[in-house]
């Protein structure tokens, strides 16, 4: 057996155990070595990191040291600059002192010289006016006075320049502060170099004098001092007169010179005041002119009254309108300053005057003022009641509020912030008619708005749409105030506002503008209102141009786009833009269109124009007559209106003008450039027409009593039926038919057949004021009733024809007639407005139980009686532009607090449309009240009666009831959704209802006169005032019979109730 066979089992185990222990020991040794290496590595990293941190710290210390050194050097440089600047200023002052001393010495020397020596002075070189240059100094001889003077002045000026340079031009290392600049002594700041013995004294004086003249010449380059031009404002007169006294009277002693400058620095009304004295050469003419101006514009009573009047007319300042509040504060400061010289303004210390001013402030500011007043009067403890704050305290208070409102730290309120987040409302899209290649493919396409409904506006867009002149939301070229300015004033405003001369917008210059406007006059790239008519006014021939015919070639095509008024006539009349103002307020101007009507013997002005001018007139009664009608109206007479053409310089004062609510003229008849150019003989006049102003109102009618304004100056003729151009003192205009419906260049024509209508025109209008004698005569005619045949105006005839053609009787006996619409009306869907108004009524009903109950009872009553009905389901989605929803609200009569009347608001406006505007008012068929009352007292037995719900007794045709829809909850239950209802009768708030009801009443009298008697018919026709009847008869039997016959005639006992007013009582069966 081998040695390996001797190994036992135990030996094997022992060998394995020994190997395992050796392996574990080796493993522990390896782990220890690895840990030691790792720790040494970490220690090395930390050591390196510590060294880096120390090095970075040293670098930071070095950087901070360099920064501190740099700051020290900068401070030293700044101190050096300030020191040099101080010495430069002292140098200038010392130079002026030395110049003055040298002049005195020269004068003293010349006083002791002989005449021959004085003549030698004239041989001195001339004093050179203007700045000296190095080239001139070098070219002059070294020993000449010019050379020395120029060298002295050149060195002095260089010293000025060097001491006033910026810090960047200083040397990096400034000179020590103790070392004075070169050429300066330590003991003195004298700047002139010491005079050497080789420099003659006269030459030095001449050089110094030349330097002084240079300084004087530089002062003369400043703007010239002169007073501003006085235009006739009471507010500007004291300041202007003070400046005139200082700048003119103290400089010129001659009265003739003063008079010349007095006319030179006045204009407008002020110059007209003294115009007659300007041509005189007498010495007292100036005193008379000055006295005349002082009496007119310097009168203390007038000045005080003007200040107070302006305060009363000051517009109310809106909430958070900081600029408006600041403007008010500035004007009140003027008033406070004027109080020191105008004792008549002491009345502004009165609390009643304060109240007028406080009412102009926002509510929050009013509340703070009341607290301030309370603090002044009752805030002091242990003291008696204080005094009310004077006007000066009110001015300080408003100035403080204005300063806070205009502060850049002022936060906008939440309401204004919400306004910025509102979406832009899409504009109403226009329509255009497209004629395609086939005549039967006539389609209408809607233009889409560039702004979508869910896009919020940007701040720049708000700025771009704000007028810089009047701060309203429109472009500058649409502003009437801008158009009323002269051309030079428009240029100044554009420069001052930083606008582009090409498009009148912010953000760029004219040479960079890519969207320049095109002039409608000359066709060049500039706005029409910047066109200079004085440079582009060609000579216009006013002879007949029928021989100068031009051949117009029209190229036909099958694809054309035309507007919706194709085939309609287009006419122009003499309507021109004018600038109007009042002679007492020349600064308040407004531009309006004026209709020049030679068939009217008076001038008229709209209420809108008077409101913009801020003037009022004398109340008068006018007898206004046309060729077909005559009537008396209330008006106001205004004197002193002055007009001038938009491109003219001549001002014309109009005679007394009468106010009207509006001037009824068609804007389509205003002459326009594009239509005038279509006529060859008018092309030369087209460029002379004023631009069309779409935002300008027609505010004047000038009649033949203003002959100077409407007199034709030039006329451009054409063919027999062609339009012609007329030039008046107010500008050019065009009269005649510009387009006819038989034009030959239309690809497609649309024929429209309608019933022939007869029109009536007033060829002459006469106006006269009503005298007391005429009033007396009017009362004498009060017993005569109205004659319906007199109502013959065009609209009245149209109303009567509609009523006669459409009236009929229903099955229940009531009359029914159409709604008298002017034309075929297309209205927008105003249901959202009606729903909003209904929700407001809901809130009021929830807070007032009585109002809710009365309202509900009234509405249920009119539905139950058939005055209103629910809209049929098949007509709910009707979309033919013939639907209008009428909002409604409840009112109580002061004498009937328990009876509510629900008023249907037919004057509600939505998107510019109002139902009442589309209704014919009809003739006034109401009997004269004075005549009814006088006849009521004629006989012994009198009685009165009325028609219950007179308007509700007259029905509306079914086809017109959709115009009278309204919203209401079913059964008055506000928890349900509102349903749509419509009125079946004429409404109380409609313009046409009174005439419709009176027409139906008189139709009933005419229809049943034979069966019920002439007395009853005459009673209803002549003795009713609206729905109240008043009658007197000789006996009570006649009264009873008349009442019974009238009841039978009206055929409805419930709607006719009699009330006894006579001395004898009627039987109860009659009541």
UniProtKB/TrEMBL annotation:
Q: Which InterPro entries match?
A: DNA/RNA_pol_sf, DUF1759
- Which ranges are annotated Low complexity under compositional bias? 12-29, 180-189
List the residue ranges forming a coiled coil, or say none: 56-94
- Where do the segments described as Disordered lie? 1-33, 156-200, 428-464
Looking at the record's lineage, which domain of life comes first?
Eukaryota
Which keywords describe this protein according to UniProt?
Answer: Coiled coil
Q: What protein name applies here?
A: CCHC-type domain-containing protein
Which species is this UniProt entry from? Answer: Patiria miniata (Bat star)
Taxonomic classification, please? Eukaryota, Metazoa, Echinodermata, Eleutherozoa, Asterozoa
């Amino acid at each position: 057996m081998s040695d390996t066979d001797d190994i036992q089992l135990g030996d094997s185990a022992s060998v394995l155990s020994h190997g395992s222990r050796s392996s574990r020991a080796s493993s522990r040794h390896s782990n220890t070595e690895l840990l030691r290496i790792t720790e040494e590595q970490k220690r090395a990293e930390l050591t390196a990191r510590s060294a880096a941190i120390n090095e970075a710290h040293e670098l930071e210390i070095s950087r901070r040291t360099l920064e501190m050194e740099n700051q020290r050097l900068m401070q030293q440089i700044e101190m050096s600059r300030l020191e040099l600047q101080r010495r430069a200023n002292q140098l200038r002052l010392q130079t002026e002192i030395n110049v003055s001393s040298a002049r005195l010495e020269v004068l003293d020397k010349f006083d002791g010289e002989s005449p021959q020596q004085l003549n030698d002075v004239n041989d001195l070189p001339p004093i050179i006016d203007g700045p000296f240059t190095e080239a001139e100094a070098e070219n002059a001889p070294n020993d000449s006075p010019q050379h020395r003077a120029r060298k002295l002045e050149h060195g002095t000026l260089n010293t000025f320049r060097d001491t006033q340079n910026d810090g960047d031009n200083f040397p990096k290392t400034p000179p020590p502060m103790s070392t004075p600049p070169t050429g300066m002594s330590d003991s003195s700041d004298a700047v002139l170099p010491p005079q050497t013995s080789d420099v003659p004294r006269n030459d030095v004086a001449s050089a110094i004098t030349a330097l002084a003249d240079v300084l004087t010449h530089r002062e003369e380059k400043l703007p010239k001092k002169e007073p501003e031009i006085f235009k006739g404002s009471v507010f500007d007169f004291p300041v202007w007169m003070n400046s005139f006294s200082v700048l003119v009277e103290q400089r010129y002693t001659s009265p003739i010179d003063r008079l010349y400058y007095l006319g030179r620095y006045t204009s407008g009304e002020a110059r007209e005041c003294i115009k007659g004295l300007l041509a005189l050469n007498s010495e007292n003419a100036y005193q008379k002119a000055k006295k005349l101006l002082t009496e007119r514009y310097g009168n203390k009573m007038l000045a005080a009254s003007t200040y107070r009047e302006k305060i009363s007319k000051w517009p109310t300042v809106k909430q958070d309108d900081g600029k408006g509040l600041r403007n008010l504060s500035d004007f009140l400061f003027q008033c406070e300053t004027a109080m020191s010289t105008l004792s008549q303004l002491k009345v502004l210390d009165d609390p009643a005057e304060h109240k007028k001013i406080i009412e102009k402030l926002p509510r929050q500011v009013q509340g703070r003022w009341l607290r301030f007043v309370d603090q002044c009067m009752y805030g002091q403890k242990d003291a008696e009641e204080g005094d009310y704050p004077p006007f000066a305290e009110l001015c300080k208070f408003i100035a403080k509020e204005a300063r806070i409102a205009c502060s850049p730290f002022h936060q906008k309120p939440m309401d204004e912030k919400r306004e910025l987040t509102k979406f832009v409302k899409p504009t109403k899209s226009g329509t255009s008619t497209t004629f395609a290649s086939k005549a039967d493919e006539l389609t209408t396409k809607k233009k889409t708005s560039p702004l979508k409904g869910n896009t919020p506006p940007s701040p720049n867009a708000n700025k771009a749409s704000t007028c810089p002149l009047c701060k309203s939301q429109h472009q500058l070229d649409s502003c009437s105030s801008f158009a009323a300015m002269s051309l030079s004033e428009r240029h100044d405003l554009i420069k001052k506002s930083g606008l582009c001369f090409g498009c009148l917008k912010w953000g760029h210059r004219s040479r960079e503008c890519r969207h320049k406007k095109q002039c409608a006059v000359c066709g060049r790239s500039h706005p029409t209102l910047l066109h200079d008519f004085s440079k582009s006014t060609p000579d216009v021939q006013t002879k007949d141009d029928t021989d100068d015919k031009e051949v117009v070639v029209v190229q036909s095509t099958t694809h054309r786009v035309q507007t919706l008024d194709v085939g309609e006539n287009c006419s122009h009349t003499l309507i021109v833009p004018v600038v109007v103002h009042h002679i007492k307020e020349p600064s308040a101007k407004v531009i309006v269109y004026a209709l020049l009507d030679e068939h009217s013997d008076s001038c008229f002005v709209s209420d809108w124009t008077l409101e913009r001018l801020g003037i009022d007139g004398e109340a008068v009664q006018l007898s206004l007559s046309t060729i077909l009608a005559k009537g008396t109206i209330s008006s106001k007479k205004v004197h002193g209106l002055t007009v001038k053409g938009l491109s003219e310089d001549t001002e014309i004062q109009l005679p007394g003008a009468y106010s009207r609510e509006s001037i009824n003229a068609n804007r389509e008849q205003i002459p326009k450039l594009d239509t005038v150019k279509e006529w060859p003989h008018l092309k030369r006049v087209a460029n002379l027409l004023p631009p069309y102003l779409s935002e300008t109102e027609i505010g004047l009618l000038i009649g033949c009593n203003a002959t100077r304004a409407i007199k034709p100056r030039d006329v451009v003729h054409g063919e027999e039926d062609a339009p012609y151009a007329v030039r008046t003192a107010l500008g050019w205009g065009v009269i005649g038919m510009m387009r006819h419906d038989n034009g030959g260049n239309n690809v497609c024509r649309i024929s429209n057949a309608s019933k022939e209508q007869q029109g009536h025109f007033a060829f002459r209008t006469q106006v006269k004021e009503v005298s007391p004698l005429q009033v007396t005569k009017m009362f004498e005619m009060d017993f005569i009733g109205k004659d319906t045949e007199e109502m013959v105006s065009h609209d009245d005839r149209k109303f009567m024809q509609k009523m006669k053609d459409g009236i009929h009787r229903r099955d229940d006996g009531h009359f029914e007639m159409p709604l008298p619409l002017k034309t075929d009306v297309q209205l927008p869907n105003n249901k959202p407005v009606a729903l909003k108004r209904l929700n407001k009524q809901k809130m009021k009903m929830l807070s007032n139980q009585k109002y809710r109950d009365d309202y509900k009872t009234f509405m249920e009553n009119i539905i139950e009686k058939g005055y209103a009905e629910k809209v049929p389901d098949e007509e709910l989605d009707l979309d033919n532009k013939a639907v209008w929803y009428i909002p409604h609200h409840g009112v109580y009569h002061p004498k009937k607090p328990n009876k509510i009347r629900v008023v249907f608001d037919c004057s509600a406006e939505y998107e510019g449309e109002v139902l009442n505007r589309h209704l014919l008012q009809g003739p006034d068929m109401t009997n004269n009240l004075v005549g009814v009352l006088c006849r009521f007292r004629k006989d012994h037995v009198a009685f009165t009666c009325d028609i219950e719900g007179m308007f509700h007794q007259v029905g509306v045709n079914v086809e017109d009831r959709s115009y009278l829809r309204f919203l209401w909850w079913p059964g008055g239950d506000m928890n349900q959704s509102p349903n749509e209802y419509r009125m079946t009768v004429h409404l109380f708030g409609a313009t046409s209802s009174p005439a419709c009801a009176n027409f139906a009443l008189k139709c009933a009298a005419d229809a049943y006169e034979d069966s019920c008697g002439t007395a009853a018919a005459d009673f209803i026709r002549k003795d009713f005032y609206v729905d109240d009847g008043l009658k007197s008869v000789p006996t009570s039997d006649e009264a009873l019979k008349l009442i019974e016959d009238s009841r039978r005639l009206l055929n409805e006992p419930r709607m006719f109730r009699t009330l006894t007013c006579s001395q004898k009582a009627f039987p109860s069966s009659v009541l």
